[in-house]
Amino acid sequence: MKNVFVLLMLAMMFSGQARAVSSCIYGRVIKDNKVQSYYWSKYNPSISYDNKFRRGSCKQSSINKYWKDFGMEKKYWDDGMGYYSTCDAYKPLNRMFNAIRVLHISKNSSQSSNAMLNHAYGYSKGSIKHLRVKCGTNDRTNASMSNRIVKFYWKGIYNKVVVERALTLLHEARHRHKGHNGGKKCPCKCSCDSKWSYNGSNTYGALYGWWYGYYAKNSNTVLKNIALNDAQWNIDNRFVKHPGYRVR
Ligand SMILES: [Zn+2]
């Protein structure tokens, strides 16, 4: 794979005339007719903590459950996406199974059943009719939902630690009932919600990260800190009216 990439880059650099290229390459994206590459920073499954969940996710019982619960379909997950290598954390399918598994096994029965931590798996399962992957040269979007179909793009799969990916899955699931209502009027100028009590995707995501950071089961300090940082980032950047919360 690496050699193919290098050859392609050389061919582009020396071809003189730039051609539109739309290629889907694991870990890297070549953008339209520019000789430019991205390396997704969380591509390595040790760095993304996919390795921590990889084996549990690819047990047959897990595969059967997650596949069914999230309406996954072979034609979207074969062709190099991991259907034939379900334990390979470099492939999109295992990485999505890992994100789903985080929602599944982080539940903490000592906390209220209404806590977002305990509610997230069932809510996501109930809201998402089909979960698909889309080989993306679109480097701005993590994932999207329309008509209860959630698509994950390369950025959502390869530029996120597994707990961030789980949070994104819940965020998209929430779009079944609520879109973003704040335009670009929040600090990040991206997917803004008006306020916390709108109870949209940003509130759900922030709450999940917050609960996860304090009470998640089957986790570790690094993942919990990442979740808390994500929660705080959502709070600080994705609301038109700052909710005023500090998660620690
Ligand atoms: Zn959104």
Name the features:
single chain, 248 residues, mainly alpha, three-stranded antiparallel β-sheet, three-stranded mixed β-sheet, 10 helices, globular, disordered N terminus, binds zinc ion
What does it look like?
By secondary structure, the protein is mostly helical. 45% of the residues lie in helices and 8% in strands. It has ten helices and six strands. The longest helix is centred in the last third of the chain and has 17 residues, at 221-237. The radius of gyration is 18 Å and the shape is globular. The N and C termini lie far apart (43 Å). Mean pLDDT is 87; it is low at 1-22. The structure holds zinc ion. Residues 171, 175, 180, 191, 201 line the site of zinc ion. Zinc ion is lined by residues 171, 175, 180, 191, 201.
Q: If you compute it from the alpha carbons, what radius of gyration comes out, rounded to the nearest whole angstrom?
A: 18 Å
Number of domains: 2
Q: Please state how the strands of the largest beta sheet are arranged side by side.
A: 1-2-3
What integer is the average pLDDT? Answer: 87
> Tally the helices: what do you get?
10
**Bound compounds:** zinc ion
In what range is the share of β-strand residues?
Answer: 5-15%
Category from helices, strands and their pairing: mainly alpha
Segments where pLDDT lies below 50 for 5+ residues? Answer: 1-22
Largest sheet: 3 strands, antiparallel
Amino-to-carboxy terminus distance: 43 Å
